């Protein structure tokens, strides 16, 4: 049997979204399409495993034993069971989802926001059409590789983010930006990778993609994440599962107020690599608690201001690093130069020689905001040649202009990543700046203070310019003299 290829699968899945247009808001498509895709994959793979076990054991009861399967689907809750029904399909789907969650603790709550029971939104005829659409292709492993299915899922996430507009930024970071971060961090076999604001899981997945692309074992990575939004957390869990990643530790909750990855009570767990795109300049981030002293001792350099939570996330990430750990975090430019409490925290990070590089990005690359952002790279154990220095990269012109949103090409990604790897000066692009120079600038990391992307104006020959001005003035005086002469001849002047 010919396996389903990625472009065909992408078209198929996006076609499911088209069936929902007009019935529900486009921003909600993802919950229902992902829920059905996940359910279809679970059922088809279970049946595939059952047939394999039946052929091996010649025993139907043994072939159906939950111990013989990656996950358990209780009897009566398979896709085929739902398709027997033509009335109250939504309620039957919901029942199947809850049964699967109850039977598989690691899948608990993944269908949390998938509710098909509202007949005004999902009349039986619409659900019948939707289920029929999904049946056009089997989702067994023999039909669709986990890599292809995972890539299609990520494609859908990007499409849904684009469809959702501003809200898309809440669960999706453009893949090219994630790629820059991972390319610079360079995951290695056996490492732990953590994203404290993991959204739909794009950064964790990109770490595994990097391993695959470089001939390394992605299964050797141990993945951790935390996400506050329940619906987004569910999308992340599904995404990892569809990529055949069963052992990732993805927790729900507010990372700043209720971190779930702990080594011990009130002690933050430490990781080899930490990367994230936290919410920009979060207003209600937990200042009231942190101002009295963070219970988890993450406020090493101080408490961020009430209206800007950026440096709370950054300090959480720093506290989450091992003694040789490295991190990459997307942040608004204000983090680089704002004074007050943020200036104090930034000074502390610099004086402890943790900041390795600052990579400025171009405008309008993110969903939900047109403002430019930067990627801050921190290394707990900077190489000797990089100590007392910070690489400043100005990538504001490294973009591909788009109608609604700009993007980054592969060349842009490689150029920005190689700049950090090379850690050297390049005119109009990047510069290695000493900590002494940064001190002289009051620990201000404003990128344009150190690297301008426009060439300086040519030097001015003052003597030549004065001579040119004098010549113009002489011509003006001559013209004025001639004009007065004409006026006198005509009797209009004395």
Gist of the model:
By secondary structure, this protein is of the alpha/beta class.
Feature tags:
494 residues; Ferritin; Rossmann fold; 3 domains
> Percent helix among the residues?
40-55%
Distance between the termini: 105 Å
Shape: globular
CATH class of the largest domain: Alpha Beta
Largest sheet, in brief, is:
9 strands, mixed
CATH superfamily of the largest domain: Vaccinia Virus protein VP39
In the CATH hierarchy, the third-tier topology of the largest domain is known as Rossmann fold
In total, the number of strands is 11
The CATH architecture assignment of the largest domain turns out to be 3-Layer(aba) Sandwich
H/E series, N to C? HHHHHHHHEHEHEEEEHHEHHEEEHEHHH
User: How big a fraction of the residues is strand?
Assistant: 5-15%
Low-confidence stretches: none
**How do the strands line up in the largest sheet?**
3-2-1-6-7-9-8-10-11
Q: How many helix segments?
A: 18
Number of domains as seen in the coordinates: 3
Q: What Rg, in angstroms, do the CA atoms define?
A: 29 Å
Estimated structural class: alpha/beta
Average of per-residue pLDDT values: 91
Structure, described:
This protein is an alpha/beta fold. 43% of the residues lie in helices and 13% in strands. The protein is built from 18 helices and eleven strands. The chain has helices at residues 6-20, 29-57, 60-63, 79-82, 89-103, 124-134, 146-164, 175-185, 202-213, 230-242, 287-290, 310-319, 334-337, 340-351, 410-422, 435-440, 447-450, 462-489; strands at 192-195, 222-227, 249-252, 262-264, 267-268, 271-276, 321-332, 355-361, 373-379, 389-395, 430-434. The strands form two sheets. It has a nine-stranded mixed β-sheet, with helices on both faces. Helix 9 links the parallel strand 1 (192-195) and strand 2 (222-227). Helix 1 (6-20) runs antiparallel to helix 6. The termini are far apart. The model has no long low-confidence stretch (mean pLDDT 91).
């Amino acid at each position: 049997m010919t396996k389903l290829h990625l472009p065909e699968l992408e078209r198929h899945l996006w076609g499911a979204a088209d069936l929902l247009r007009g019935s529900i808001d486009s921003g909600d498509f993802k919950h229902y399409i992902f829920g059905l895709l996940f359910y279809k994959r679970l059922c088809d793979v279970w049946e595939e495993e059952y047939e394999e076990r039946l052929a091996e054991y010649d025993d139907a009861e043994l072939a159906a034993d939950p111990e013989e399967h990656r996950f358990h689907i209780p009897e009566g809750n398979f896709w085929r069971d739902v398709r027997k029904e033509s009335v109250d399909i939504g309620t039957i789907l919901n029942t199947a989802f809850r049964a699967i969650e109850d039977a598989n603790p690691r899948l608990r709550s993944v269908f949390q926001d998938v509710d098909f029971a509202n007949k005004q939104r999902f009349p039986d005829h619409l659900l019948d059409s939707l289920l029929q659409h999904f049946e056009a292709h089997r989702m067994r492993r023999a039909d669709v590789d986990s890599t292809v299915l995972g890539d299609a899922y990520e494609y859908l996430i990007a499409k849904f983010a684009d469809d959702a507009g501003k809200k898309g930024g809440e669960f999706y970071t453009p893949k090219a930006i994630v790629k820059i971060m991972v390319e610079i961090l360079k995951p290695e076999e056996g490492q732990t990778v953590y994203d404290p604001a993991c959204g739909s899981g794009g950064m964790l997945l990109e770490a595994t993609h990097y391993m695959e692309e470089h001939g390394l074992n992605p299964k050797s990575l141990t993945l951790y994440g935390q996400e506050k939004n329940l619906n987004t957390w569910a999308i992340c869990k599904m995404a990892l599962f569809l990529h055949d990643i069963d052992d990732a530790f993805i927790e729900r909750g507010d990372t700043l107020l209720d971190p779930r990855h702990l080594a011990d009570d009130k002690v933050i767990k430490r990781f080899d690599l930490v990367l994230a795109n936290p919410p920009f300049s979060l207003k209600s981030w937990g200042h009231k608690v942190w101002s009295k002293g963070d219970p988890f001792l993450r406020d090493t350099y101080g408490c961020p201001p009430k209206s800007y939570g950026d440096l709370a996330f950054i300090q959480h990430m720093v506290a989450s690093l091992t003694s040789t750990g490295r991190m990459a975090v997307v942040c608004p430019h204000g983090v680089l130069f704002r004074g007050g409490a943020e200036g104090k925290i930034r000074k502390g990070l610099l004086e402890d020689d943790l900041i390795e590089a600052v990579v400025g990005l171009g405008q309008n690359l993110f969903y939900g905001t047109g403002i430019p952002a930067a990627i801050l790279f921190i290394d707990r154990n900077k190489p000797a040649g990089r100590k007392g220095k910070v690489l400043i990269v100005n990538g504001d012109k490294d973009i591909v202009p788009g109608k609604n949103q700009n993007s980054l090409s592969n060349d842009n990604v490689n150029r920005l990543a190689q700049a950090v790897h090379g850690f050297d000066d390049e005119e109009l692009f990047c510069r290695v700046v000493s900590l002494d120079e940064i001190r002289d600038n009051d620990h201000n990391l404003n990128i344009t203070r150190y690297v301008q992307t426009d060439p300086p104006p040519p030097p001015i020959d003052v003597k030549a310019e004065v001579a040119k001005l004098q010549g113009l003035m002489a011509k003006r005086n001559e013209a004025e003299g001639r004009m007065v002469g004409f006026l006198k001849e005509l009797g209009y002047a004395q």
